Amino acid sequence: MTAVLQTAPVEAVAGYRLSLRRFTRNKLAVAGLSVVVLFLLFCFVGPLLYSTDQTHTDLTQVNLGPGAAHWLGTDAVGHDELGRLMYGGRVSLLVGLAAGLLATVIGTLWGAAAGYAGGWVDAVMMRVVDAGIAIPALFILLVVSAITTPDTLGLIVVLGLVSWLVPSRLVRAETLTLKSRDYVLTLRATGGTHGRAITRHILPNSVSTIVVAATFQIADAILLVAYVSYLGLGVQPPKTDWGGMLSAGLTAAYSGRWWLIVPPGLAIILVVCAFNAIGDGLRDAFDVRGRG
Amino acid sequence: MSARVNVPEKVVENVLEVEGLEVTFTTDTGDVPAVCDVALHVRPGETLALVGESGSGKSTVALAAMGLLPGNARASGRVTVDGTEVVGAGEAELARLRGRTASMVFQEPATALDPLTRVGAQIAEVIRNHRTVPRAEAAREAVELLRRVGIPEPERRASAFPFQLSGGQRQRVVIAMAIANSPGLLIADEPTTALDVTVQAEILDLLRGLAADSGTGVLLVTHNMGVVADFADRVAVMLRGEVVETGPVEEVLLRPGHEYTRRLLAAVPRLVVDEPADDSAAPAEGAAPVVQLRDVSVHFGRGRRTVRALQEVSLAVRPGETVGLVGESGSGKSTAARVALGLVPSAAGTVSLFGADLGRTRGRARRALLSGVGVVLQDPVASLDARMSVGECVAEPLRMHRRDMSGPERRARVAEVLELVRLPKELAGRGPRELSGGQRQRVSLARALALQPRLLVADEPTSALDVSVQQTVLEVIAELQGELGFACLFVSHDLAVVQQFAQRVVVMRAGRVEEEGPTMTTLLRPESDYTRRLIASVPVPDPVAQRRRRALSRTEATA
Questions:
Q1: Which among A99, A191, B31, B226 has the fewest CB atoms less than 10 Å away?
Q2: Do the chains contact at B370 and A189, CB–CB below 8 Å?
Q3: Mean pLDDT for all residues in chain B
């Protein structure tokens, strides 16, 4: 490929335009982005158009199949299933997005600090990460859920705290290469501070790695929320999320009430796949290394 | 050998013939033509040097000749190797050709070898790929080949892994693989660019001997005119994908016809080897040095793995003078420069910068001290943060050390220094990606000069650039030094550049100072054997003079 670089009096194409073009060329990523946007609209704007009562049970309307009054039927306590999918999606998406972002922020700070400091500081900080990765996240979540009953905010914090380890490794690796770049050396050699090196050069140049990591992190977090709620340890009724809906509908599956299982299951699969596709697209667009 | 059974009817047939070759690359930003209508040929036993600057398409021609163009390239025209058409040939046909009829030596010996396979086995593999010989026979041949390329104790070295060999020895192994099946054509793409000059001289000697003995035609791709003068019979000069001049080496290098060739040759820094020493520009002896290293030692790692990068190195740069720090790779010259900048801590000895002990100064005082230093490093791509505009890059030292400066003042200063390095001030709004290598290095220089430093540390500032660009960058530095009077510590492996540029030189070898003194005296009448060998190894871009020097150094070696 060097031959291509050498032959290049290539006309200047602004970096972000090129990135955008690479992203849009990945059809799967564009589809993923559309799916995510549609789901956000569905969950946050949908209830305005299709209003349902998700707080009170209605025992006259239990276990109805899909029909004109209830498009996706009702569950065992009379909640409209389509409306519930919207309200549950709010929790799933909100917790997933927030926990994924929180994990990325913690991981970025931890990884950048370790990579930049180097030496024994780096060694100690990274052994902490190794130890954290050795403990299954699900185990920690089960223990925490056994102690307290988490609300939405609690769930975000707990999920964020168990999943920052992988992004911290990625950012550390990036920092290690960036801190020996000539422009950072030049800065240090001419009296620049560490703070300046990190905030002006290292973090801005890791943005692509961080954004890609964040996308995959969100996908993982949404899946994790579903796990936890499926086990009955997530947000408590009358609130729910897609994992909780799956759990509640499980008993109904044997009695043929598929509308309690298939919609939330499909929603989880679609959204997680969509975020992963977006991550792949961003990785192409920024040309950074993969996950993990 | 059996490789050449189908003897051609004509007495002398060209081993490589290229006619009307066109190559175009398809990229994200559209089609880029790389080679336009190139015609050339190589006869058996002859060496054709393909020279040109980066982007001229010389490597693309070499790759096209082997059918090794990357997937996004389209080639048309005619390329025949020993009578076989290469353009449009199938993989199977090309595989028969490669390594047997034609073989290639790449620039970087470290990546051309499989790190997990013993070198003897790698050579034997090449042999068995093309000829049905028993394993033991191939292994014996491999040892014989290692002997031919001048590897000492070939029986033992055949079982070495590539990492156990030096860079020069690795390149010899690569050459051994290339000649394993006695090819009619050897394509060498910058075969010595990654090597030190003394090793380069040995490798060129080897290639020359092999070509003469076996009648192999050689296509040598290089940017180094000295190597061309040393090695080639004929030269083809490429410019923007076209061959602009072809001819015998004496003709092209001594009486160039094309205007571009003339310009190219004029830009090559020439090592003066036989002129009387004239050191009239005597350095300011009395003044206190701006930077001084006293008995500095630097160790990397600890315990048994310690690498002694510097051992009791002393050097000083006085106000206004340029000191050239020369040596081969691993000699510690860059480390010494980094110690002077406070980037590498010294294990012993003291570093004084502008009279203060750099090792003991901390915090704000240290930053203030360092604000008097400008730095230009080697890599034009890595030297500028691609996320910043040129203006922001140049303004960075001002933001760090002139906090009270207002925005308009800062912009005015940026425009001023850009003008100093002969760049239009409109460039301030551009991104570094849009600039050429030479422009980027000048932006680095502008950044270094923004605070009017008393010392400029330049670590190989031009070695990644083409000669014509190198010349402008060096001119700018020299001119500004005359105007602004800063001292300069100039690190380079290129003796000719240092000779042109520095008043004093310090020759380093294996972490120690081998010799130092006024430039002309040291480089014309060196005291140490090492410096003498270093100078003798640099090929000069004059085939007649180079032949004389080679004969001379050979008689000296035997004497």
A1: B31
A2: yes
A3: 86
